[in-house]
């Protein structure tokens, strides 16, 4: 259902911003110089002119429960610089200045009144929630620059779902940073709720050459990364980078049963989610209590796929979180849970894959 704020139907963004051009013939010489890059290709990897000096301060997510089964959610589409590797900044297209975007948590059966404010001065953006039943041509439509749109959905299914911008070309919007996770908590909980000591959220995503649709389509990611999003006040909340969750590990104590809400937002690669040094006692595929598995070593997550995984840490030490596709670990996809006697950081060195 649409509510009457400023909305616009999907529009075509200038092809020169996104589309790869055909190659050109190299000049024949005794010593051939590097081939000159066609202007159309070069333009792809440059910042869109209105974004050039734009680095919008993150706008906090706004969430307010307005009824027992109704919640208002307001997010912003904005352009914000994100450090994805040490010394490597990416002028990301984001939700709320985070990449992945802020965590959204609602309850099964909630009605979500969602507002998207588009602070991007140059191109439209939109929202595609995987957690809802809705007509994309009515409820996932573009919001034009400097305008806002409000939509209403019902979260009927529990789980760990991806959200992302659905504006054409969708790959460019997702790969440039417009992705995140929405958790719909099951109305009857999980059968293991009373056993859980610690809960974390882990999100996997990929980075490619900046705003290069050809590389995003045909290339391989330059970085594959993890982030964590805060479930409760005081928990760490990071962007998708190669280092944060290695330098500042998640903390637990010996004997803790840990639950991780995990989602692979892609946009292209599969994740083989694994925690080194343990076995998943219980797994709920896509976070739905009906999809219950036990004793799993690795959980396969397609692009957009989610899960709830639970395990126990029985000894002190460093427990690496990885995708078991180790070429991606080499590109950054590793995090650490540091387990100590009392669950505090004792200053000891950690080990990571």
Q: Any descriptors?
A:
six-stranded mixed sheet; mainly beta
Q: End-to-end distance, in Å?
A: 47 Å
* Beta-strand share of residues: 35-45%
For the largest beta-sheet, the strand count, sense and barrel status come to:
6 strands, mixed
Could you tell me the mean pLDDT? 90
Radius of gyration: 21 Å
The SSE order reads EHEEEEEEHEEHEEHEHEEEEEEEEHE
SS summary, helix count = 6
Q: Which descriptor suits the 3D outline?
A: globular
Class by helix and strand content? mainly beta
Q: Level of helix content?
A: under 10%
Describe this structure in words.
- The protein has 353 residues and is mainly beta.
- Helices cover 9% and strands 39% of the residues.
- The protein contains six helices and 21 strands.
- The chain has helices spanning 39-44, 136-139, 170-175, 213-218, 244-247, 326-330, and strands spanning 2-3, 62-67, 70-85, 88-95, 104-107, 111-118, 128-129, 148-154, 159-164, 179-185, 198-207, 223-228, 250-253, 257-266, 271-275, 280-285, 292-296, 299-301, 306-312, 317-323, 334-340.
- The strands form four sheets. Strands 1, 2, 3, 4, 6 and 8 form a six-stranded mixed sheet that branches. A six-stranded mixed sheet has the order 12-11-14-19-16-17.
- The chain is globular.
- The model is unreliable at 1-35 and 37-44 (pLDDT under 50).
